[in-house]
Amino acid sequence: MSDPALLRMPQHLLALILAQLDSTQSLASAILSHSYIYATFQDDRNRILRAVRVDQMPARTRPYAYLTLAAGQMQPRDRAQVRRFLWSSSWCLDPHSDLGAGFLGRVMKVDSVDPRAVVEGLNSMHAMVEWFTRDFARDTLPLVGSELGLKRPGGMTLSADETFRIQRAMYRFQMYCDMLQSPMDGKGNWLGKRLRRNFFGRFSPWVNEQLACVHDYFERVLSRAFDEVAAHDVDWGHQRINWLANGERNPHKQAYLFRGIPFLHTLAHAPTYAARRALLGPIPPPPACHMLGTTLWKHGSTNGRRELLEWQHFWTRMDDPADPEPYEGEGEEGKGKEGPRWWVDTLWQDDDEGRDGYGTLPFRYWRAAHRDCWQKDVVAGVNARWLRRVGYVMWDEQPEGGKVGELTLRVRVLEGRKAVMLERFRERDAGVRRRVREGRRAREEIYLRGGRGYWKEGDMGEVVWGSGDDYRAG
């Protein structure tokens, strides 16, 4: 019996077929099926592995993964390198550009870089991003129906566009952490204009608000461990670590967030208090000069108030379905296309091929929340913190009665709830602040008497005392 046609094929053609397989499991089955296929794989191992494993990533997400890998290879203090990266990244993130894919090809050709390490790095980061995407859905989707009134036929299942929005924001978060992590050096404004133009300005404010949603989510992931340690650890109590404030008001949390997704993934999987305490260390790291919680608020609104006023003009046209002054564009393309729909579809090119453009639900919810706001509150504003808690600019489903006025009313009611206000300003609550002060004083006393470890109000059973200490409770 003659060999199958596949085994009579030249090796270079067979290698092309192996590179098109959709998973490493399929590749393993193929190379173990025959010695000829195995030999073909060994002859071109790196290229085949790269193609199969990297191609498992969604094509829309891949450019962000490539750029995140590039950011991780930079020296954070090398300003010239960061400037070049910011300039080139705006081109690489163009959905119609192949520069992102070209970057990976250039890295693979560098002799000093192990191609397998590059592929492993891409896949390892994407595995963590996928885990956090599922956790973001578990953390957020239960609130979507009760708070935003969205009906989700798929329940906890994310659509392809929703998954893309979340993962794009997570890769941008990691890219920012790798690119700009540096201690406070008194020169924190050297990148302000470049961040506005190249990192934030490439995206609309509601897409930058998606990054703010992910930032707040990662802060919640961190806070599960940070708040526990800050409220109970004797060392941290002696150092008066603030755990009530969030966002730009808490530089300690911002400094930990700068350690990025790998650190947060490890922290989220730490099984015990001792493990979480060991990861956080004896003291928080020094504040970083370009904290994302602050730069999002300062620079995420792109051109600020002027651009906001320009948007108002187009929003007014979109709200009027009759559009009493039909607009006909110039040339053949604009003829016969009247009203605000033409403005949306033609004049304004939206982000990432229509997933976040004018008329989409992310835009409409963002607009409802920011009809009356100051320039710097357009992105990452404190008033929209609870809206970001429910991921309001991430979802596809249309709410019941989803007209702009009804959306605005729903947003205003949500923002004004007592629980939302208390969460927003919990560090100002007199009762909470009193309990925090009392806990700090108790731990300071224990620290000065030689005690260390875990303290709980009314229970010092887990406090570890130093040698020679004769302190007795009571």
Q: What's the short story on this structure?
A:
Helix content is 59%, strand content 1%.
Question: Which class best fits the helix and strand makeup?
Answer: mainly alpha
Q: Regarding quaternary structure, how should these chains be classified?
A: single chain
Terminal Cα span: 91 Å
Major beta sheet summary: 2 strands, antiparallel
Radius of gyration: 26 Å
Mean of pLDDT: 75
**Which ranges are low-confidence, i.e. pLDDT below 50, for 5 or more consecutive residues?**
320-351, 467-474
Topology as a string of helices (H) and strands (E): HHHHHHHHHHHHHHHHHHHHHHHHEE
Q: Helical stretch count?
A: 24
Q: Strand percentage, roughly? A: under 5%
Q: How many DSSP-defined strands?
A: 2
Question: Which short descriptors sum up this protein?
Answer:
two-stranded antiparallel sheet; 2 strands; 24 helices; mainly alpha; 1% strand; 474 residues
Describe the structure.
This is F-box domain-containing protein. Residues 321-331 have a biased composition (Acidic residues). Residues 320-339 are annotated as: Disordered. This protein is 59% helix and 1% strand. It is mainly alpha-helical. It has 3 domains: 5-54, no CATH class; 58-428, no CATH class; 429-464, no CATH class. The protein has a two-stranded antiparallel ribbon with strand order 1-2. It starts with 10 loop residues before the first helix and ends in a 9-residue tail after the last strand.
